[in-house]
Amino acid sequence: MEKCKICPRNCNVDRIVSKGYCDQTSLKVARVSLHRWEEPIISGEKGSGTVFFSGCNLRCAYCQNYEISRGKGKAISPAALADIFKRLEDCGAHNINLVTPTHFVREILQAAEIYRPSLPVVYNCGGYESTQTLERLRGFVDVFLPDFKYSDDLAAKKYSNCPDYFKVCTDAILKMREIVPTDVIEGGLMKKGLLVRHLVLPNNIDNTVGLLNWLANNLAKDTYISLMSQFVPYGNAKAFPELSRKIYPLEYKIAVNHARKLGFDNAFIQDSDSASEEYIPDFDNSPIKF
Ligand code: SF4
Fold it and tell me: From the CB of 10, is ligand 1 less than 6 Å away?
């Protein structure tokens, strides 16, 4: 068995018998649903066909999906995942949205060999990605939907134990743009392309400004970005006093105004009432059984 170097943690463990940083061995899924709370070009009217994978290679202290990033879910085979792809298509999903897929890329590609979705495939990840692994997704993934969490290495180390996040994530975003160089929007839905997300953190506005500056300096101004205001002090966030509250409207306004000043044409912004635990899916009540 090849030792796992799927992501930049480079744990070099045999995932059949050992767990690395992501704390996962074989394929495990926490929730399957038609999700209507993604950006409009992803959710559309009928919903995005989301598959939430258990575990995560980042395990951020404030994770907004804390239970599943810490492993809640059910072990399934690649064949069962292929069946989930088919059933999401049958349910009318606009796309197949792979949420936190990085540590299961091998099994996802095995599932794709059994059944190749006819819908656009969305790779919805935390942004801490190996460019070699992204290369394996060329021709399979249509839409890259990475988080861009940090420009500040100290924040990355403190909240995600990931001091090289900025370098790794920016290399990954450039690789994603190279793999899918053009955004294709049809009927109000992204069929191919790149949409970069950022969750604004309380007391970290310089982090937000820094990564927006990088995006403006390295990608076209019509790149799709999404500034999210929905942070709630979830998971282990309260261990960090500066993360123990929602963001202030002024913090979000600074972020949005800075994106405008930099000239981004295609920026999604959220209503102030988005910072609610209502927006955190209940992983015990999956609407699609698997
Ligand atoms: S996928 Fe998991 S085991 Fe593999 S390198 Fe990344 S964190 Fe380590």
Answer: yes
Ligand 1 atom with the shortest distance to the CA of 23: 2
Residue 274 Cα to ligand 1 middle (Å): 32
Could you tell me the CA-to-CA distances from 290 to 27, 55, 69, 79, 159 in Å, in that order?
13, 18, 19, 12, 33
Q: Is the CB of 9 under 6 A from ligand 1?
A: yes
Among 192, 208, 219, which Cα is nearest to 258's? 208
User: Is-contact 8 134, C-beta < 8 A?
Assistant: no
Residue type, 68: I
pLDDT digits (tens, 9 = 90+) for 192-228: 999 999 999 999 999 999 999 999 999 999 999 999 9
Atom in ligand 1 nearest the alpha carbon of residue 4: 4
Q: Which domains does the chain have, with CATH numbers?
A: 28-279 (3.20.20.70)
The answer to pTM > 0.85 is yes
In sequence order, what are the beta bridge partners of 97? 50, 122
Q: pLDDT of 72-103, one tens digit each?
A: 999 999 999 999 999 999 999 999 999 999 99
Name the β-bridge partners of 193: 143
Dist. CA 239–CA 250, nearest whole Å: 24
204 lines ligand 1 (CB under 6 A): no
